[in-house]
Amino acid sequence: MLEQTTIDRSIEIKRSVAIRALRRSNIRRKVTEYLCEISPNCSYTSEIAYHISATSSNVIGALRGIETRYREEESLIGLNMVEERSGGKNVRLYGVTDFGKEIIQTMKVRR
Questions:
Q1: Mind giving me the DSSP string for 18-78?
Q2: pLDDT in tens, 41-69
Q3: How far apart are CA 9 and CA 92, in angstroms?
């Protein structure tokens, strides 16, 4: 019983951190929303940047983290909201996870 309570609390903390990260960064939110729209398909950084009107470097920062501007632990991959897939030689594709879809849905309901 205690173990289940600990797991439930851990999941709630993870959700809170993810929602906070999306609220703090419009780029993170837009990237996740775009990937939800195209799900189950994946996309690469320049295509994501084009569709959300952002620079590729900002999209990469939101996805993977870039030193001081986007902390790695608050990146979409670090929060398990987006997963990176290999699309062949030196091609990285990104797709939203079920957790990412859940967080976006939660945020839309709260608006």
A1: HHHHHHH-HHHHHHHHHHHHHTTS-B-HHHHHHHHT--HHHHHHHHH-BTTTB-GGGSTTT
A2: 999 999 999 999 999 999 999 999 887 77
A3: 33
Which candidate, 71, 75, 69, 72, places its Cα nearest to that of 94? 75
Asked if 59 and 47 touch (Cβ cutoff 8 Å), the reply is no
Q: Residue 15: what residue type?
A: R
Contact indicator for 64, 75 with CB cutoff of 8 Å: yes
